[in-house]
Amino acid sequence: MQAHGVRVFVKRAGVQLHRLIPSGQNRFSTASSASPESETGAHHKQRERELILSVLSTVPSPREARKFLNSVSGNETMRSQREFEERQARLATEEPTMRTPGQLVPGEILHSERAAEARETEAVPRRLTASVFIDGLESPGACERTGKLLAQIQRIGVSPVVLLANNGSADATCGGYRSIIRQVHQLADAVEREGGKARPINEGVFFNNPYDRTDLTVDPELIGAAIAQGHTPIISPLMADAELQVKVLKPRVAAAAVARALAQSTSTQHAMAGSGGAFSLLVARLILLGGADGLTGEGNVFHRFVNLEEDYAEVAAACAQPDVLELMRTCLAILPPTAAGIVASVDSDPSLVLKGLISERPVATQQRARRNQGVAQQGQAVRRAGIPSYRPLPSYPFVDIGVRDVAKTADVVEAPTQFTLLRHGFQIQRHKKLDTCNVPRLRSLLESSFKRTLDAGQYFERLRQLQGAGGVEIIVAGDYQGAVIVTHEAVAGAESLPYLDKFAVLPSAQGTGMADILWAQLRRTCPSCMWRSRNDNGVNKWYFDRSSGHVRAPAQPGATQWVFFWYQSSVPGQRTLTVDEIQSGIAVSQKIAPSFV
Predict the structure, then answer these.
(1) Is 89 helix (H, G, I), strand (E, B) or coil?
(2) What burial letters (b/e) apply to 467-500, b meaning 16+ CB within 10 Å?
(3) 343 pLDDT band (50/70/90 cuts)?
(4) If I label 594, which of 148, 153, 213, 577 is the partner at 20 to 30 A Cα–Cα?
């Protein structure tokens, strides 16, 4: 699947990629690289090769590639964010009693006057931006690796805004002040050595509101001016108070103030201060580089994906990095809903963070030895039965990259390279009966997602019948912005089979991580599951990446051509589907009548 993804990316986005990563200046990038004459030709070529390989190794889907390239081109705004803003403008005009907490999303809420202005005013070009929060550069080589990462982010057309935190090693003394200034300039020099452009900003960014001394404010003009000149602003956490006494700001306070300033610069009608009227921001990522390679819980359990709206209390109860979790939660609540957070180690390879920036998926580049012997034996049995099978993947949204030959690495245990992806997310509702759902809104969601007319009478009658038989699981995210419907189908000689009947995401919720959130909830509810998809369904690539196996139904003249998928649990003790159950499930799902007319 990796090679297929690279071929698709190169085929569909190769020309744009060539323009996006040129040897000289390009009209998409926020900064031009240093002249090749100022460095050795071999070093310049090596740096170009590393960047191209890092971009291609992300293996984005065609949708992810199109979205990223459109975002950095400056010709389009992100559709999902714009639709969210328009939806929030409509909600702002309704009576408070008509709204529920699930309808509210983070980010800027446009009032009716601004929404009207948005329709009448030509949009300001958007500059794709990543807010980078660095918590410590003390480890050997951390400064050089981070400088390389920031230079590569620049080169792919994203404008990083960097805040260097005080991780406790620097105090408010003269020595602490010099330590912070030194780190800011060392990082700027590292970016320049890697062909990027950086601008240290040591003072003048933070100040107190003169009417409220407890309210920390950020002047975005210095940040906007640096971005407009193609520089990466590297901000120190220093502020001079009214008595001109220098203070070292706490990480959470400084990061929240910067996030607020960036969020206030995302208007599609008003350019960012300091940009000369040239652009506003489109904040795509909040990246935190610190001492840990992500968030861990009790028993050193690693959290690779966190839906803050639903999972925060559970994760926070046993999180080994509570300050990091709280900082990300605070900042993501301020930023637009399309922004995602990445928590990675400052010692991570730069290509790993680029994967999270481009592909929007958590990535585990973890070398694995032999998989569970039972899973391997079951895979062999499936192949003997004539059903094609792929190696089981970890629970989505995670993918393996670069798994080596098992025979050569059976005795080799390498440290995992990973990160945690966070989304502000949505609240989750679970229903086992249609009577507790808002059926009209569920129908509207299904029809909007599939862009077809639902045979509502027949479909909902089938669900009601199954309520009293095998059972029905309906998972709703947010205010009916996404839903998963699972039915438990009767299978001869076995317990009921979990069948993914519908997976729907509202078009306006695309880009917010909704699919990731729903898939994670599905895997929690049903450790193993089957489903079918039309042979020409454009979502099949997404299904191939997340399934343990699939089989195509034999072609029948005039009949719908189906692809049948299944995924298996790799957790000991959880149910896995046998070969007979998979074959019976295919036979049962073939008989289910189509839901749309």
Answers:
(1) helix
(2) eeebebbbbbbbbbbbbbbbbbbebeeeeebbbb
(3) very high
(4) 577
Greater pLDDT, 21 or 90:
90
- Half-sphere exposure of 292 toward its Cβ, with a 13 Å CA cutoff? 18
Nearest CA to 216 out of 174, 267, 268, 163 is that of: 163
Task: Give the pTM.
Answer: 0.73
What 3-state DSSP class applies to 483?
Answer: strand
Tokens of 15: 């020309």
Give the integer Cα–Cα distance in Å for 426 and 482.
9
Nearest-angstrom CA–CA distance, 361 and 296: 18
- Residue 336: asked if its preceding bond is cis (omega within 30°), the reply is no
CA angle 230, 231, 232 (to 5 degrees): 130
Angstrom CA distances, 45 to 52, 373, 535, stand at 11, 45, 43
- Residue carrying the six token digits 């605070």: 330
Identify whether 397 is preceded by a cis peptide bond (ω within 30 of 0).
yes
What is the spatial distance between Cα 575 and Cα 566, in angstroms, rounded to a whole number? Answer: 13
Contacts of 239 (CB under 8 A, 6+ apart): 203, 205, 206, 207, 208, 216, 246, 247, 249
What are 322-336's pLDDT values in tens digits? 999 999 999 999 998
Q: Enumerate the H helices of 373-508 as residue ranges.
A: 373-384, 406-409, 439-450, 456-467
The 3-state secondary structure of 360-400, one letter per residue: CCCEECCCCCCCCHHHHHHHHHHHHCCCCECCCCCCCCCEE
Largest CA distance in the chain: 83
Polymer length of the chain: 597
Structure tokens at 482: 């996404």
Task: Report residue 306: phi and psi, to 5°.
Answer: -130, 120
Residue 214: both structure tokens together: 């407890």
Which stretches of 168-219 are DSSP H helices? Answer: 174-193
Residue 469, token pair as written in the block: 């038989």
Collapsing DSSP states into helix, strand and coil, what is residue 417?
Answer: coil
What is residue 357's predicted lDDT score, i.e. its pLDDT? 86
